[in-house]
Amino acid sequence: xxxxxxxxxxxxxxxxxxxxxxxxxxxxxxxxxxxxxxxxxxxxxxxxxxxxxxxxxxxxxxxxxxxxxxxxxxxxxxxxxxxxxxxxxxxxxxxxxxxxxxxxxxxxxxxxxxxxxxxxxxxxxxxxxxxxxxxxxxxxxxxxxxxxxxxxxxxxxxxxxxxxxxxxxxxxxxxxxx
Length: 178
Ligand SMILES: [Zn+2]
Prior knowledge:
About 5% of the residues lie in helices and about 50% in strands. The two termini are about 25 Å apart. By secondary structure, the chain is mainly β. It has one domain. The strands form 4 sheets. Strands 7-8-10-1-15-14 form a 6-stranded antiparallel β-sheet. The structure holds zinc ion (ZN). Zinc ion binds next to loops. GO terms for molecular function: zinc ion binding.
């Protein structure tokens, strides 16, 4: 099994944090990812949707258990399972500094995640309000209230020996540049 962390950054104005709509580890928050076969390099032509609340049984050859996505690509089948509990909301300072913050961990078999799309509803907080933001257009702007979330970027990174070092992943600030 190989583990990947999804890290994001964005510029936040008028709000102090940014995360999935139901909070971290929201069971119904869709993650849109493109996957690449680690054998032949083929990439899925469109984004696949993965969410914690959608579980499917593993193909029999992989043994027992479930995954959040079982997908066929080229002549192979790969699986993706989400590992909750290791993410943090993106805060204002990290965004200003261009630091990437880990929001989710994915356990992958056969394929590697290579591209992420924010196309869903996210949540941000200001002192007075909770903002729900449709990120299908890649940014959010409310010019009257001076609330902006722009410059959204995401990347996947392979995690070395995730289970052995999970405590350090759990307590680390998970921010580049620290
Ligand atoms: Zn392949």
